[in-house]
C-alpha cells in the first residue's frame, strides 16, 4: 500500500511539474513580460492569502513581521528582474538551475539517499541527493554557458553553481523549518504531488535574492 501510494504521489508530482513547466515556458517565451510578472504576482497572492496562514496564525506577530521579507520581497525582486529588458534573461536561468537542482536532488535522493543531512527538519534530504543535484545543476550551468558562447572555466562554474545550490537548499530547509514549527507537512495541497506554491518556490525565492544582488556579475557570466 505504501509503495503504491509513493508511486502515485511520484506520478502526480511528474504530471503537475509538466503542467507547471508548460505554463511557465509558454508565458515566459510567448507572452508579454507583464503577463509573466502577473503570473508571479498571482502565485505570491495565493501564498499570502491561502498558505501563509497555515505557517503562522493571522493574529500572530510573526505573520506580519516576516511576511514583508519572506515571501513578498523575493517575489518583488523576481518581478523586477523579469520587467527589466537587461536582466530578464536571468529569470530563465534562475528557474532552469533551481528546478534542475531540485528535481535531480529529489531523484538521486529517492534512488541513493541514505545519509540524511538534517533529519529533524527535513527527513527527505540526503547528502547523496544534494550532491547528485549539484553535479547535474553544474553540468546544466556549463551547457548554458556553451550555448551562449561564454565557455566559462570549470572552477568558476563549480563555484557559482555551488552558491546557487547551497542557497536553494537553504531556502528549502528554511521553509521546512517553518512547516516543522507549524506542525504541517505541506504549506497547502493546491499542487498535487508537490504540496503548495510555497513548497515549490522556497528555493526560487532564496536564489532570487542572490540573483538580484549579483545581477550584474551573473549577467556577464551567463548572458550575451
Report on this structure.
By secondary structure, the chain is mainly α. Helix content is 78%, strand content 0%. The protein is built from 9 helices and no strands. α2 runs antiparallel to α4, α5 packs antiparallel against α6 (127-147) and α6 crosses α7 (154-182). The protein is globular, with a radius of gyration of 17 Å. The termini are far apart.
Compile the SSE list and pairings:
Layout: H1 2-30, H2 33-55, H3 61-66, H4 68-83, H5 88-112, H6 127-147, H7 154-182, H8 197-213, H9 215-222
Helix pairs in contact: 2-4, 4-5, 4-8, 5-6, 5-7, 5-8, 6-7, 7-8
Report how far apart the termini are. 51 Å
- Radius of gyration based on Cα positions: 17 Å
Quick one: biggest sheet?
A: none
Number of helices: 9
Strand content: under 5%
Helix-strand sequence: HHHHHHHHH
Helix-residue proportion:
over 70%
Mean pLDDT: 89
Shape: globular
Number of strands: 0
Decide which structural class fits the backbone: mainly alpha
Poorly predicted runs: none
Give a summary of the structure in a few sentences.
This protein is an all-alpha fold and 224 residues long. 78% of the residues lie in helices and 0% in strands.
Amino acid at each position: 500500500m505504501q509503495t503504491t501510494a509513493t508511486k502515485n504521489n511520484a506520478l502526480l508530482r511528474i504530471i503537475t511539474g509538466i503542467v507547471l513547466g508548460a505554463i511557465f515556458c509558454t508565458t515566459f517565451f510567448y507572452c508579454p513580460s507583464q503577463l509573466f510578472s502577473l503570473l508571479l504576482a498571482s502565485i505570491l497572492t495565493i501564498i499570502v492569502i491561502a498558505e501563509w496562514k497555515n505557517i503562522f496564525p493571522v493574529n500572530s506577530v510573526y505573520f506580519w513581521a516576516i511576511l514583508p521579507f519572506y515571501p513578498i520581497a523575493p517575489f518583488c525582486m523576481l518581478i523586477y528582474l523579469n520587467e527589466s529588458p537587461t536582466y530578464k534573461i536571468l529569470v530563465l536561468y534562475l528557474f532552469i538551475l533551481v528546478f534542475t537542482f531540485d528535481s535531480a536532488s529529489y531523484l538521486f535522493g529517492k534512488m541513493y539517499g541514505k545519509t540524511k543531512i538534517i533529519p529533524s527538519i527535513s527527513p527527505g534530504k540526503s547528502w547523496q541527493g544534494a550532491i547528485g543535484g549539484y553535479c547535474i545543476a553544474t553540468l546544466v550551468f556549463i551547457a548554458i554557458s556553451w550555448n551562449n558562447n561564454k565557455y566559462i572555466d570549470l572552477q568558476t562554474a563549480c563555484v557559482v553553481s555551488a552558491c546557487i545550490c547551497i542557497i536553494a537548499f537553504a531556502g528549502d530547509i528554511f521553509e521546512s523549518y517553518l512547516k516543522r514549527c507549524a506542525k504541517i507537512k505541506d504549506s497547502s495541497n493546491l499542487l498535487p504531488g508537490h504540496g503548495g506554491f510555497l513548497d515549490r518556490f522556497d528555493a526560487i525565492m532564496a536564489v532570487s535574492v542572490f540573483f538580484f544582488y549579483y545581477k550584474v556579475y551573473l549577467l556577464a557570466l551567463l548572458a550575451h
